[in-house]
Amino acid sequence: MASDLTLDKIVALCKRRGFVFPSAEIYGGINGVYDFGPLGAQMRNNIKNFWIKSIKSNHDVVLIDGSILGPEKVWTASGHIDNFSDPMVDCQQCKKRYRADEIDINKSCPNCGRKNWTDVRQFHMMFKTQLGALEGHSQNAYLRPETAQAIFINFKNIITSSRVKMPFGIAQIGKAFRNEITPKQFLFRMREFEQMEMEFFCKAEDSEQFFTEWLKERIAFYDSIGVDKNKLRQKEHSKEDLAHYAKMATDIEYNFPFGWKELEGIHHRSDFDLKQHIELSGKDLSVFDEESKQSYVPYVIECSVGLDRLFLTLLFDSYCEDTVEGETRTVLKLNPKISPIKAAILPLTKKQVESAQKIYNELKQNYEVTLDVSGSIGKRYRRQDEIGTPICFTYDFDSDTDNKVTVRDRDTTKQERISIDHISDYLNKILK
Ligand code: ATP
User: Fold this and answer.
1) Which domains, from first to last, does the chain contain?
2) Which of 45, 75, 79, 229 has the fewest CB atoms inside 10 Å of its own CB, making it the most exposed?
């Protein structure tokens, strides 16, 4: 990360190059909600694929895709109806609203400098809606504030319909909604966001060992995706800080320009969720242990990371400004697997467009590639550097005769010539 990197630079880059746009911008926007443009959507898919691969690599883990709407009972059982609120306070002078745990209300308002606070009230963060059109017959429902509950309420369906054996995990990627009091820091705290969550079901006696194992695996994931080790740390929750469902918890934090903040939470949820759903639904969610010939309710280790928060982390972590041939360039040194575009095909002049187009047409069957024909070659390199494209292939004056292209590496800017027939091998190697 560049030392003078600010959030504003990232926001501007995201808008300029089509990674992220404020949602409903032509109508003035909507606070805490964003749309992802072509590069952003592609990069998100790459992150999701990387995550799925990592979460399944050492353990048996199955994927599900649960619903976003849930009936009130689900959220009563999970504890969200009673507990999912943040303390809120307003400045009566300038009307600015704060999360009361984020400011010191013994001091003046950071915005207007006066000290005229309302009482601290609890603000419930779930989005509530009504199902059905008939008055008096409608049912309360909520947009899910986390994806995890879809996993717990489907636990029995999954063990009876799939060939999973304990211990195993159920993973899910999907939207979650929280009416945050103060959405801020761009994708860091949103009202509509996406989570990547995995609930690992095991016996109570193995749960602490799995907690340690998963924590280690998740740290290894960040290493494999290219996040700077020095910018990550683990923060264990003290007993007082634990969420209502947690027995043990450790956050993996990243050093953002606005401070160390949670990126992922690893939680030991014990049998809290399954037991709650057993109690409220009256259904048996236990499993039968062949060894002891007894039924038991599994314990759960959860790994939960926000896709958008990780997306933002990767942008911060890979952003560099350096000088190449006397010119400053912006470059996203993303892991090639995460880069939205894997390679750019650049015909040196208009005369080479047709031949370059042929290479492009072939490559795009298997890779996310782009053909860029306009501007000087230097300008085109910079355009690709700024969006993290790891490789540029230039079709030049000699290519017709030697059947080779010039390969230019994003990070080192080094160039070499390779045979056109070896382009796919070259790409496969950097994407391995
Ligand atoms: P925070 O303390 O930052 O509010 P949390 O402890 O409430 O987070 P969890 O409920 O554990 O978060 O959610 C798991 C993950 O989901 C977080 O680690 C984070 O990456 C992501 N996440 C949570 N809330 C948001 C949000 N409002 N916007 C974007 N990502 C979020």
Assistant:
1) 7-70+128-315 (3.30.930.10), 85-124 (no CATH), 341-430 (3.40.50.800)
2) 229
